[in-house]
Amino acid sequence: MDANDAFQLHLQKLPPQDEKTFETIYTLGNGHFGVRASNPLQGNNSHFNGQPGMFVNGFYDLTELSYGENYAGYAQNSQTICQLPDPRFIIFELDGIRSDETPYDVKLVDKNLDMRSGVLMEIFDIKSPTNKQFRLTLQSFASHADKHLFVIKYSVSALNFTGALTVIKQHPYINQQIQTHSEDMRASQPSTVLDRTFIQSKLPIMQISTRKSQLALIVAQQTLNDNQMQVTMIDDLPSHSKTFDLTQGMAQSFSFVYAISFPHPLLKTTLSQSAFAASAEKRLANKSFKQLLDESTAKIDQFWENSDVELTGDDNLAKGIRFNLFHLYQAAGNDGLTSIAAKGLTGPGYEGHYFWDAEMFMLPFFTYTEPAMARQLLLYRYHTLPQAQHRAREMGVENGVMFPWRTINGEESSSYYPAGTAQVHINADIAYAVDTYVRVTGDDDFLFDYGYEIIVRTARFWLSYGHWATDDAHKDQFVIDDVTGPDEYTAMVSNNYFTNRMAQNNLSIAVKYSNQLKHSHPEKLVALNVTDEEIAELNRAADGMYLPYDHERKIKMQDDLSTSKPVWPIKDTPRNQFPLLLHYHPMTIYHYQVNKQADTVMTDFLFPKDQDSAQLKRDFDYYEAITVHDSSLSRAIFGILAHRLHHADDAYHYFMQTVLMDLSNSQGNTGDGVHAANMGSTWLSLIYGFAGLGLEKESFNLSPELPEAWSSLRFRFWFHGRQIEITITQLAVTVKLLTGTPLQFYLKHKAFKLTKDRLVNQALN
Ligand code: BGC
């Protein structure tokens, strides 16, 4: 495979999938918006089956949640990301017949995503009702240089006729119809109603607004200077339009740019429409498709420079890895006001919500390879602290904050609290991510300005939510009742191991940073009202944290009662009854030991020093046997642990399932959007798993071991302002310092000194 091919995602080389799956796979995005790669003639035509649309990060409407029994404190509104009209949409007119009125035949011929330039190339063969055939070629990209821009070039060439073809670019509809209504609660139901006005009645610059959340954004449609198309009023809508004289074999091209601007509500500013229109015009003046593309590609080049993982020995796998990394890059909000949704910006699944997925599964990739992006993602949480504080009080928690389980605007949006709000571990997950970011980057400014506050205020939550036990079983230990851990097939338990261990970590890092800042920045503690007494109290709770353990089986217990329940008969359950959540009442599931996803073993993964390998093996064996992986967040964790246990075949198998999840649609719902956390897990598996990267005090350790099928693995990361490159082969590991000052690091826990002039090359045995 040549170097360039390694970044091409060619339709013909992918396993066959339905239309919606490919729309998701080929979505283009830049963290600000995502555009599904749908049939550009579909629009709102119910004749077609696709699910076109554009998603803007943070742009949602509220839909009232209706409960038969509406208890105090229930989330009252769901935030739903808006499925905006498809900017790719185009209308053709042949022999007086418009394609939006009478469906034309549209056949997808080919698609290719060049992950180096970010350009998606597509070919469709189109036939009019009068049997005139022409080929439509699209080249499009979401700009990574100017995050507001979506750029698309259309080329048309006649296949069996000579004559006039009229092109109309207008958006006759604003509410994108969604063709299927799924019973799957993980899919989003179309429920938002959008309004539109044109900023100046005769230009295709529209303001789209939501009704309940009262948000507005502007989408400006402009042509680029490589073609001239007039704006005219067609059916009372400002439209670009032109009639081309087609001759066979001669393609005609024209390009458009969409400038999408959204003043995020957390900014607390209002949009000046005229200022936006002026700035959109200025931004685009005299720019060609090529110029805009070059600017965007330069940004993507930087991304690959920092973040590529180069695997040799399996070309298809190498490409699959890049596909996952590229999607992560396309998904990540980069403005401090937005995060990464469970589906990125590729589909409406999970209503566009942010979960713990962002901090625990995706953030490490950015923390190590694009720390500036990681900082922005953490800032999003910082900016929603007021909502988290309000929620804590609403839930009767006197101190600290309570981050929502699922959200866009910072408020809780989960309607089923046992598998939602009760997952209070999200507080500790966010704190864990802040700590990792600070330890990897050494960004003390961030710690001082934002991170410390997040850590202290989340830690305070545990002091209020947990308590010192008095009963015999837990006497004098700090316990946390009525929570749900990551495994959503077990709910509302006492002392979920994962939650307690993460809370303990949250408390300990609050103590660590308080003690550190007490000397360097005492004013910070004063500002947050952190006293010596409070530090002592946090410390006492961390030390006294109860961690359930089954002494008979010698395993970490998922919660106080977990091992006493009967085990779900996994092997006797027909394949078509999975995922269980779509077939059984939650209480039926809760009645058994059955895990949707990695739960207790997440702590083995996150705190490797907590246990020796015998303990890890017992935990792994026990929990693997009762885990059904109905969540996409599961397999990779088991894979990493299998690797640590030197179960090479299992580790490899889990890894392959992780990398190929969306390309093979193995969860069956990629059509609703990619599994972004699983994409982050691809990186975790490679770097925390096969390369064995782990943090040490102000340093890092590598314990590499490659699967037999691979020849080498190369990747880069940043550590305290230094860029480091690691190359692992079957025989040796090479560590290079690309930029920055010398440092000491560990290889299989043995210390090495790394300088720019002296790389470290060590044989592996
Ligand atoms: C998982 C959660 C996850 C959510 C969004 C659920 O199926 O159980 O852990 O956060 O999906 O990806």
TrEMBL record:
Can you tell me which residues form the catalytic site?
A: 488 (proton donor)
One Gene Ontology term from the biological process aspect of the record: carbohydrate metabolic process
- Which keywords does UniProt give here? Glycosyltransferase, Transferase
One Pfam entry name: Glyco_hydro_65C
The Glycoside hydrolase family 65 N-terminal domain extends over 13-249
Q: Which InterPro entries match?
A: 6-hairpin_glycosidase_sf (IPR008928), 6hp_glycosidase-like_sf (IPR012341), Gal_mutarotase_sf_dom (IPR011013), GH65_N (IPR037018), Glyco_hydro_65_C (IPR005194), Glyco_hydro_65_M (IPR005195), Glyco_hydro_65_N (IPR005196), Malt_Pase/Glycosyl_Hdrlase (IPR017045)
Indicate whether Transferase appears among the record's keywords.
yes
The chain positions of domain Glycoside hydrolase family 65 central catalytic read 322-683
Q: Which GO terms describe its molecular function?
A: carbohydrate binding; glycosyltransferase activity; hydrolase activity, hydrolyzing O-glycosyl compounds
Q: Return the similarity comment.
A: Belongs to the glycosyl hydrolase 65 family.
Q: What is this protein called?
A: Maltose phosphorylase
Q: Which organism is it from?
A: Secundilactobacillus mixtipabuli
Taxonomic lineage: Bacteria, Bacillati, Bacillota, Bacilli, Lactobacillales
